[in-house]
Amino acid sequence: MQYEPIKQSLGRFFAGSLFMRKTLYFLLDLLLLRTWHVKKALRKISQQYSGKASVLDAGSGFGQYTWRMSRMNKLWKIKALDINSEQIADCNKFFNKSGLSERVVFQTGDLTALADLNCYNIILSVDVMEHIEEDVLVFQNFYKSLKENGVLLISTPSDQGGSDVHNAEEESFIDEHVRDGYSIKDIKEKLTLAGFKNIEAGYTYGKPGNISWRLSMKYPVKMLNTSYLFFLLLPFYYLIFFPVSIVLNIFDLSLTHKTGTGLLVTARK
Q1: What's the per-residue H, E or C state across the chain?
Q2: What structural domains does the chain harbor?
Q3: Strands 53-58 and 120-126, sheet pairing
Q4: Tens of each residue's pLDDT in the chain, 269 residues
Q5: Please, how many CA atoms are within 13 Å of residue 93, restricted to the half-sphere of its CB?
Q6: Fewest Cβ atoms closer than 10 Å to its Cβ: which of 44, 179, 253, 265?
Q7: Residue 194 backbone zone (phi > 0: left; psi -120 to 50: alpha; other: beta)
Q8: 74 in Cβ contact with 47 (< 8 Å)
Q9: Its pTM surpasses 0.85
């Protein structure tokens, strides 16, 4: 399933005015369960950095997490890095219009070549590592880029059905993924190899979250891969299923999951 073309079309539709971009961020905050989990973890981390801090959004995409972090603490200086130059240009335009260019900058870059030594207190990486083959190299770059006692926060699919893969015969729901997901053991070992300590990992997208993901993401994306005409039907689809997804997300956020299709990982230098 091709996901990037849909993301690009969505980005172009919401590009332009401040209102449209803020609407996109608002909808992503509500719709994407991973955002709920990441925001909860970021609020906890932000308590440790109530003053000035340097932050890297590693694989910033539409820039919604950079936007969230810029509003969390006005003393944070944030660098957002992504390999997609079109998205970087759009984000720079929006953040410049928003008056945030003095403390937020977007740059095109490859995380396998990241060389910002001892620069950041916080590194955030959401839905990125499943796209990068050389993951250990990127973890090493993250470690080198963090200041002493800096924190890394990662959200990525797990091997317990992440990318909608449940056995060896199935293929990833998203064609752009180079791996279906991490086990907790695997990602902890790789982060330890990179030098990290105090590594904590937990499952997200438990049973309620998995149902919510299917209703809010999988089925709409499958429809849009069939024809972009389904864009016209999406408002009516979400009118029915969006309230259900919200309730399921609340349950997923509040429960502790023995297994799940997502992982939320924190680690320190």
Answers
A1: CCCHHHHHHHHHHHCCCHHHHHHHHHHHHHHCHHHHHHHHHHHHHHCCCCCCEEEEEECCCCCHHHHHHHHHCCCEEEEEEECCHHHHHHHHHHHHHCCCCCCEEEEECCHHHCCCCCCEEEEEEECCHHHCCCHHHHHHHHHHHEEEEEEEEEEEEECCCHHHCCCCCCCCCCCCCCCCCECHHHHHHHHHHHCCEEEEEEEECCHHHHHHHHHHHHHHHHHHHHCHHHHHCHHHHHHHHHHHHHHHHHHHHHCCCCCCCEEEEEEEC
A2: 4-268 (3.40.50.150)
A3: parallel
A4: 555 555 666 666 667 688 888 888 998 898 899 999 999 999 999 999 989 999 999 999 999 999 999 999 999 999 999 999 988 999 999 999 999 989 999 999 999 999 999 999 999 999 999 989 999 999 999 999 999 999 999 999 998 876 554 444 445 455 566 787 899 999 999 999 999 999 999 999 999 999 999 998 888 878 877 777 777 888 899 899 999 999 999 999 999 999 999 999 999 99
A5: 16
A6: 44
A7: alpha
A8: no
A9: yes
Identity at 81, one-letter amino acid code:
L
Structure tokens at 264: 């939320």
